[in-house]
Predict the structure.
Amino acid sequence: MKRILNGMVKTMDLVNPPRITALQDLHDAEDRGPFSILIGTILSARAKDEATSRIVKELFKVYKNSKQLANAKIKDVEKIIKSIGFYHVKAKRIIDVAKIIDSKYNGTVPDDLEKLVELPGVGRKTANCVLVYAYEKPAIPVDIHVHRISNRLGLVKTKNPEETEFELMKITPKRLWLDINETFVKYGQNICKPISPMCNVCKITNSCKYYKTKKNAS
């Protein structure tokens, strides 16, 4: 896995510098901490990274912490996040989550997977994103990019992201878990795209099942 991660980084260094992911952007900002990562991950579902980063920052200009967001009116939150997909559902969800974080956890986001997945609308991917980007605790958040690339490479043969997560945990040293999501997501956004992947510049084609199959078919 280390060789694959290094190959991805080398490939991206040769192409235009890839944009930073929304969660890494929020992590680097370090002005709202784990709560902004949690809310940002919920809002990021089916949304572009640029939109997520911008909207989360706008949201936290108005609501500084879980207590303030917990007491917010849904219509007011909807106005701020309206440009993001499914904003009606997401507005209610982040307010509900804020209420639990404020009342049950005294405003502190749990750093425990089991507690995180008990929050409304928080699945394993979101919980793992909080662990990785907020607390830098080893976990493997699996989104569409991580799932697609892992299967294309032939690292796993899985039907859904949760299966992919468990398989990657088996074959990847724990010291590399923190690097997987950020590297794979950027690679999926810029190189190994869903349609027309840039195999011509990829430095890991010798380890790629998809590339070998395509080459043999041509």
